[in-house]
Specification:
- By secondary structure, this protein is an all-alpha fold.
- It has helices spanning about 15-40, 45-50, 60-80, 85-105, 110-135, 145-170, 175-180, 180-220, 230-239.
- The chain is globular, with a radius of gyration of 20 Å.
């Protein structure tokens, strides 16, 4: 199906400044997800001493995060397609922030590894939401090629992984600050996305109330999904 005929994503949020904000917020969330995976690998003796982690157990702090991320991202992606992205997004933000804080407070290897798994689950929810947004977003923003934007996205993820390694090596005995930094950074990425979803939901409810249920269903419900759920299925069917 030609690009010009495809349903609009969020009726104005899929292009222009709104689309750029959406894309930037999704990219920042994936920067944090990648950094969260690697940051503990170079934190060194201070982290292991605080949590009773043996040197041989440190890889498990990465593995449980990656396993939770890898195992949950696809089911959450499918859940978003069947329901709405807002609850999954809020769940991901809450889990990622709360587990980051908890990791600075707990003592003992089992508790630390358990909260790393929870952090990975939050990362999976953020990743599933970001994928849903980007796949529904008209990537040809301001005439830029979609493959160029996807290259930028990949570079952001790689930069996040590298930043996590560097931050873990630099903080040393103050390793908790690297985890506390997730709180403001996650808010910076998540607040624009939540506001976008809520604003489009309110707007579409107002349109539906004015046009009636029949007209609302005919125009295509982008509502809380910003064209993520039903919009993708419509594009797949029309392509």
């Amino acid at each position: 199906m030609p690009r010009a005929e495809r349903p609009a994503v969020g009726d104005g949020f899929g292009s222009g400044s709104g689309g750029r904000v959406l894309y930037a917020a999704c990219a920042l969330s994936q920067f944090l997800v990648a950094a969260g995976a690697s940051v503990v690998t170079t934190m060194g003796p201070a982290l292991r001493e605080a949590n009773g982690l043996r040197a041989s157990w440190l890889p498990w702090a990465v593995l449980v995060y990656v396993l939770a991320l890898g195992l949950l991202v696809l089911p959450l992606r499918l859940l978003i397609r069947r329901t709405r992205p807002l609850p999954v997004l809020i769940l991901g933000l809450w889990l990622f922030v709360q587990s980051s804080v908890a990791l600075t407070l707990v003592s003992g290897a089992p508790a630390f590894l358990a909260f790393r798994a929870v952090q990975g689950a939050g990362a999976a929810a953020l990743t599933a939401t970001a994928l849903a947004f980007v796949l529904a977003l008209d990537l040809d923003l301001d005439g830029q090629r979609p493959d160029r934007l996807l290259l930028v996205w990949s570079a952001v993820v790689v930069a996040g992984f590298g930043t996590g390694l560097a931050a873990g090596a630099v903080v040393g005995a103050d390793w908790r600050w690297a985890l506390w930094a997730n709180v403001p950074l996650t808010a910076t990425a998540g607040i624009p996305l939540v506001r976008l979803l809520r604003s489009t939901r309110r707007r579409d409810k107002a349109v539906g109330a004015g046009a009636g249920a029949g007209a609302g269903s005919g125009d295509g419900d982008v509502g809380d999904g910003v064209g993520v759920g039903q919009g993708e299925e419509a594009q797949d069917a029309a392509a």
